Amino acid sequence: MSLLLATLAGVGLDTALGEPKRGHPLVAFGRLAERLEQRFNGGGRGWRSHGITAWCLAVLPPTLLVGWLSHFSALGWLAEVLALYLALGLKSLGEHALPVAQALRLGDLSLARRRVGHMVSRNTAALDASGVARAGSESVLENGSDAVFAALFWFLVGGAPGVVLYRLSNTLDAMWGYRNARFERFGWAAARIDDGLNYVPARLVALTYALLGRTGLALRCWWQQAPHWDSPNAGPVMAAGAGALGIALGGPAEYHGEVHARPLLGEGPPPRARDIERALNLVYGGVLLWLALLLAWGLWGA
């Protein structure tokens, strides 16, 4: 019951307050990660062993500290609530996605491109309205998995230490997990660890999306299309999400001046502004479903 209440409190804080505008611990963690990368990967010369060392130095001390705090009664419960709250990005997801849909509805393509550029790493300057809606929908589905459901999963599995370990690992993957000359070797550990931590949550998210949408189509797209996607975790999530919504995602996209011929995901018409909102509603509905199942489990065991 304590875990249930902490989960509800953490989600409630995120829903009410969103991410802290100042003093977010992940900002300080990002600075630490930059210093560690400069120390162990100067000039892109770091090897896999350097990346493993840097990952351990960045992630393990905060995780162990939170684990120690969580052993205290009242203080431990508060630490758990705050850890989940700071790891979640549910309200932030809507704060980024809805303005993109709004700009598209108003016909302001230039503004929509700029706004979706804050959500994705691809080049958005030449996207048409459908391309903006595609980028926004894909980002909502994938970030819903990474920033919401996976954090909930690891909190339920490992409490405060579990969610801190996951969130910091995911942050390092976003900073170091690139396949380029600078990070190919050094960032290998961060990328592989994040893949491992997301493996089970991503498939639970794909199933969640499927159950809340066009189930048969979502499952078929997951089964047939996900294996062709570069990421072993984003593939199931976005294929199932696109199928659940009955839209076509994926396809060519430009990253850092290079066009990537990505496979198609889903089935149906190209996405529009409303599909960004539908993708967001899929995430919201999934969170409610997870919380309802958690509540039922808590009441059953009470």
UniProtKB/TrEMBL annotation:
Membrane disposition? Multi-pass membrane protein
Which Pfam families does the record cross-reference, listed alphabetically? Answer: CobD_Cbib
Statement: the UniProt record of this protein carries the keyword Transport? no
* Keyword Glycosyltransferase in annotation: no
User: Pathway it acts in?
Assistant: Cofactor biosynthesis; adenosylcobalamin biosynthesis
Residue intervals passing through the bilayer: 147-166, 282-300
Q: Family membership, please give it.
A: Belongs to the CobD/CbiB family.
The record's section on NCBIfam families has: cobal_cbiB (TIGR00380)
Question: Which HAMAP family does this chain map to?
Answer: CobD_CbiB (MF_00024)
Q: Spell out the protein name for this chain.
A: Cobalamin biosynthesis protein CobD
Organism, by scientific name, is Pseudomonas benzenivorans
- Gene transcribed to yield this protein: cobD
